[in-house]
Amino acid sequence: MNKVKWFINDFFSRHANAVDRALHAVGIPQVFFGIFQLVLGQWKWGLLNLFLGYLWQWIGHKYFDKNEVGEVILIKKIIEKIKQRIVTSIFLVCILLIGGDAMALMIKSPAFNDGDMMSAKYTYKGEDISPPLMWEHPPDGTASFAIICDDPDAPMGTWSHWVIYNILKGINKLPEGVPPYNEIDNGAKQGMNDFQRIGYGGPCPPPGAEHRYFFRLYALDQILEVEPGLTRDQLLKAMKDHIIEETAIMVKFKR
Q1: Beta strands, E only, 45-190
Q2: Which domains does the chain have, with CATH numbers?
Q3: pTM, whole model, 2 decimals?
Q4: Region of poorest pLDDT, from 6-10, 135-139, 208-212
């Protein structure tokens, strides 16, 4: 073990400046790549690359710059310091990633939480009206929103319960009981659900296992030039290449 430590000490003592240059050669391009990602709006990965790029340069300057560390490098001290920096780096990266998720597009409802059982009020057993929905943190460049509610557990394949689109970017909620009109008061257009009706049609699964119902929110980079009455598949086709970000909330219902 002593010979290994001596070899490592000797190697870093002889090649400290080369290691320093190598770390800078990795770090500097990573910093510029991070800046480029920030310009493109990819701020989470941009910040991560910016941080890591500066970290490599700092390690090189701190531990392998021969002008500072001298001829002999204490490998034990270096390992301890690098371990500390790795732990700090992991902690900061986690903060960045958690912060990025916190600012992601989000949809929610005052009527239920994600994964809840849906109230009968919003199903065929009750008033069969649409639940209230609200959303926040739209991404930059959003021009409109679209919402699809569907049931992927339906026996005949995914069943569409609601299709609504061209919700303008300044709108961040829909009230309970959106009326079944082609175009509603806020200018949004509604499509045809799989009950062959305009607007919302609540859950009505066959007896047996519980079904999942997803309210899927899409942030789009344009207002779609389409008429009311689109089906789910037609809307998905119209939105192709225009989706900036999407999210969903899921509720369950069982007959």
Answers
A1: 106-108, 133-136, 144-151, 159-168, 173-174, 189-190
A2: 2-102 (no CATH), 106-253 (3.90.280.10)
A3: 0.64
A4: 6-10
